[in-house]
Amino acid sequence: MSKADESLDLCSLKTFAELSGVSVEEVADWAATGTIPTLKLADFRMVNLARLRADLTKGKAEFKEGDYAHG
C-alpha cells in the first residue's frame, strides 16, 4: 500500500456520512450496532475503511447489524 493509500484507512463518522449521502445519526447508529467496521481511536469512533474495502473486495454485498460487533 502506498503512503497516499494509508491516509484512507480511517475516517470520522461525519466524513463517512457525507461521503455516503446519509445523516451522521444514521452512521452513528450503524457504528453502535456493528453494521459497519469501526475502531476507537482515543475518544473517537472511526470507520475502518481498510476493513470495509477488504470485505467489499471479497464480495461482501450486505451489511447487517452485528456484522462488526466490537467487544
UniProtKB/TrEMBL annotation:
It comes from the Bacteria. This is DNA-binding protein.
